[in-house]
Amino acid sequence: MPDRAPQPVDRQLPTDEARDLISLVRDIAQREIAPVAAEEEDAGRFPREVFTLLSESGLLGLPYDAEYGGGDQPYEVYLQVLEELATARLTVGLGVSVHSLASYALAAYGAKEQRAEYLPAMLGGGLLGAYCLSEPASGSDAASLRTKAVRDGDDWVIDGTKAWITHGGIADFYTVMARTGEEGPRGITAFLVPGDAEGLSAAVPEKKMGMKGSPTAQIHFDGVRVPDARRIGEEGQGFAIALSALDGGRLGIAACAIGVARAALDEALGYAVERRQFGRPIADFQGLRFMLADMATQIEAGRALYLAAARLRDAGRPFARQAAMAKLHCTDTAMRVTTDAVQILGGYGYTADFPAERYMREAKVLQIVEGTNQIQRMVIARHLVGPETR
After folding, report:
1. How far is the first Cα of the chain from the last one, in angstroms, to the nearest whole number?
2. Residue-wise burial string across 237-268, b where 16 or more C-beta atoms lie within 10 A, e elsewhere
3. For 67, phi and psi rounded to 5 degrees?
4. Please, are residues 50 and 126 in contact by the beta-carbon 8 Å criterion?
5. Bridging pattern class, strands 129-132 and 173-179
């Protein structure tokens, strides 16, 4: 059964340009993405042509400067674009979020000459990025990463393995965090590595319970040589860059989570109105009406939370605590809402003929990526009561 068209959201957008932008995204989502989402996810097919279209439409660099090919849009608008894309297909919404995450280090910390040389192609030239922080033995404890970059004249030679890399093996560039000095966070440096670099290879993609159309793979660096001109920021600044990137990235995950929850609610609503039992639509029964009301309320609360954090970011104010809260709440909401959608559809919800089961499988990963929700709680608690004592 095809995915149902989502109900439009009554958005409060800051400009007419932003309203036109959302209309464009909705049109692309419903015309090019949603109709084939279920089929392509089932086949494990990555829609590279959709990302080419998004790049040509100026949608891959929305929160970045127009001087370098970006869209000059506030995060408040960019995140709502992600939500619309994720409502149609999480592989696309999350893919745009990861691309933006991979572009952040250079856009925020790169030298002017570096930004001028590399950013236009990254933001509007059809390229696709990946972000390399996690490793097989360092996920939540990212500061213990082991991938090394050793100085050799004007170059750096990178050796090691990165894990759980979205777009691994298909990305055109990788933003890589590697150890260049002492143990711990102060010995990590950021690099921009081209996807076709000699010595860079990808393992077989992971076999996942959801998001099968988005490749996730280990990336191996075997003597990968990059010039110092591709080092981003100062030596030893990489971990700070990584954490700064993740603050914004978590908001992207939050927006995507609300998109998936919206899709699940739309499916549940459509089914509840159409399905009849005991001589009337099941939407007449109070138990289901309360479930639907709770689902809608959680989605609205999640959107308000991620937008509040985005507006802080746009105003140049600290937003790390609010970003962690948004990621935590929105992804937990997506898990609850998609699980309830499966329940409302009953036996049909457990079949692949309806998209509810896919939404539930996809929602689970959002509680894990870019900092598990347990890590988000740690971040929030540190802002409230300070670091843990040892």
Report:
1. 55
2. bbbbbbbbbbbbbbbbbbbbbbbbbbbbbbbb
3. -55, -30
4. no
5. parallel
Residue 288 to residue 268: CA distance in whole angstroms: 10
Query: Among candidates 346, 302, 81, 89, which has minimal Cα distance to 214?
Result: 89
Radius of gyration of the chain (CA): 21
Which residues lie across from 162 on neighbouring strands? 219
Please state, as a whole number, how many other Cβ atoms lie within 10 Å of the Cβ of residue 305: 22
Give the contacts of 115 (CB within 8 A, at least 6 positions apart).
68, 106, 107
CA 298 to each of CA 13, 104, 126, 294: distance values in angstroms, whole numbers, following the listed order: 21, 30, 36, 6
pLDDT tens-digit map of 249-284: 999 999 999 999 999 999 999 999 999 999 999 999
CA 155 to chain CA centroid, nearest Å: 31
Alpha helix stretches (DSSP H) within the chain: 16-28, 34-43, 48-56, 75-88, 90-109, 112-124, 238-274, 286-314, 320-345, 356-366, 373-385
**How far apart, in whole angstroms, are the C-alpha atoms of residue 285 and residue 300?**
23
Assess whether pLDDT exceeds 80 at residue 4: no
**The token pair that represents 338 in the structure block:** 């998609």
The pTM of this model reads 0.95
Predicted confidence (pLDDT) per residue in 342-382, tens digit: 999 999 999 999 999 999 999 999 999 999 999 999 999 99
The C-alpha atoms of residue 123 and residue 66 are separated, in whole angstroms, by: 10
C-alpha distances (whole Å) from 342 to each of 265, 300, 351 are 10, 20, 9
- Give catalytic residues, as residue numbers: 370
Instruction: Output the CA torsion sign for 182, 185, 190, 193.
Output: positive
The rounded distance, in Å, linking the Cα atoms of 161 and 133 is 10
pLDDT at residue number 3? 47
- Cβ–Cβ under 8 Å, residues 235 and 312: no
DSSP string, 33-49: IHHHHHHHHHHT---HH
- Among 357, 369, 360, 300, CA closest to 328: 369
Smallest Cα–Cα separation from 240: which of 57, 99, 104, 38? 104
Report the distance separating Cα 132 and Cα 316, nearest Å.
Answer: 26
